[in-house]
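Comment thread on ticket #2218

A.B. wrote:
> Attaching the input chain for the structure job we discussed in standup.
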Amino acid sequence: MEEILKRWNTWWVYNKVPENKKLIIREEILSHILKLIKPKEVVILTGVRRSGKSTLIYQVIDNILGKVNPKNILYFNFDEPLKERNIDTIELIFRTFLELNNPKGRKYVFFDEIQNISEWEKWIKKYYDLYGEEIKFIVTGSNSSMLSDNLSKLLTGRMLTKNIFPLAFNEFLKFNGILIKDFTLQKEEIKHYFLSYLTKGGFPEVVLEKDAEINAQRLKGYFDGILLRDVVLPQRIRETAKLTELANYTMTNISAIFSYNNISKAIGLNIHSLKEYLNFLENAYLIFQLRYFSYSVKESIMMQKPRKLYCIDNGLRNAVSFKFSKDEGKLAENLVFIELKRRNKEVYYRKNKREIDFVIMNKDQTLTAINVSYTDKVNEREMKSLLEFKKEFKKAKELILLTNDLEQKKDGIEFIPLWKWLVG
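C.D. wrote:
> Ran it. Output below, let me know if you need it in another format.
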């Protein structure tokens, strides 16, 4: 264990984080996490694998090294092959850290991919209750099940959470060396990179790699790794072929309204297993199921309405789906959904005679309705659906139609180019 810890914590000797671990800074997210370092609460970073959680941790460590004794900082990645994966393992790691360094003052403990350890939350709670502000815990995980009811009960009032997504479009631009100073002057340049972002997605390593063949292989590896590590192994799935087929089906059919019966027939899974598998894929942040809008959240959940499917990243989707065209309309809608999730919006869809792609319930109970029409020749029905929605719901304060490049305001509807909305 001593050798493993020294390998993970090279700053104990060199007083710095290796350059190849820090990469490009995501200022907005990093600054938010750094604000969470001072309070005593446990910080929990969740999100899909390869979205940059580990890099953010290294950047946080690099930021605090000048203010904290390097030997007071412990990092451990629980993807490390270990003989046992339980709270005794965490205890051994922490005790070895204390024996090696004898740290004085506040200790900073970074546990990466902690969902791999059963009952980890019990160990964290024990030390949090015993030592309070003396130990600052920052943990990451790649499965939303780690934010389970059990965790909530154990760490109520003791945790702060942040969901980490692949790169937003403005981050994608920065990773490509583009700084926006003037929309008008840089319009064509921004649109050029938007077309790349639309299909390439936002996984950091993929964005930094220019070779398309390498990226295709890398994304397929991400997909297989997520299924294996975050679904098959922890859930002990036996029908792995059916799970993979379902995952491919959902990635192919992004933005589509689906019914359990239709997917059950297409995949050959019974309804019970299908619902279970979809939840597993959602817990791994691979897909999302969007619910039908009703003013009552309880009613929205209980109503037997079909849901819509979205995936975490366009690049990942393109690498594994069965597609027969560019699917730019679907990809554009998927980008909007992920951006709304990134902005922490409470989002639904609505469909009666006509469909509203996204209904946002704002904190003041007003509504924002968004349709995505990735063209400049907007179909009349896109406008009619928004206007009918406003007529039906008096609290609809904002109507937005996201286009390819059309920008105007008409009949109370804002037409906004998608690329501009993404960086707005």
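A.B. wrote:
> Thanks. Noting for the ticket: The radius of gyration is 23 Å.
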